[in-house]
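dude i think i finally got it to work??
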Amino acid sequence: MSAELMRLLSNIIRTGIISEVDEESWCVRVRSGELETGWLRWNTTRAGAFNVWLPPSPGEQVVIACIGGNPETAMIIGSLWSDASPAPGKSLKEIVISAPDGAVFRYDTDAGALSASGMKTATLQASVSVTLDTPVVECTDLLRTATLDVTKGER
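look at this
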């Protein structure tokens, strides 16, 4: 097998570290060994009618695929946890999303519990109504409202 063919084969799938992020063009540069890629579009879980924005970070470890082994055709196909950026959850029964400022969104299927913590403010805005259908709604501090309409009765 020729040296050129071996080089191309070894470049088909590579791991690397994001060195730069351009959020305006949704592109990153990746360093993999001695290779520094050009600007590559990052991947997303959804980019159609449903759309997800989870931008990558400098220092994030990624997997790149190069069509035909040519790094000029590289695309990011996923991210990897690392010692520098470990997984935010430890259970197969939870979904956890963590943000750089310490905010954490967690759903634990064993407990049936959804939590959002670590943020400074939270807004829930609906054009028609918001329904809290539960036996108890608890506020641990000040509750402020512009208007209040209380109805007591049975179902």
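The beta strands are 13-22, 27-32, 35-36, 40-41, 61-66, 74-80, 94-98, 104-108, 113-117.
im so relieved honestly
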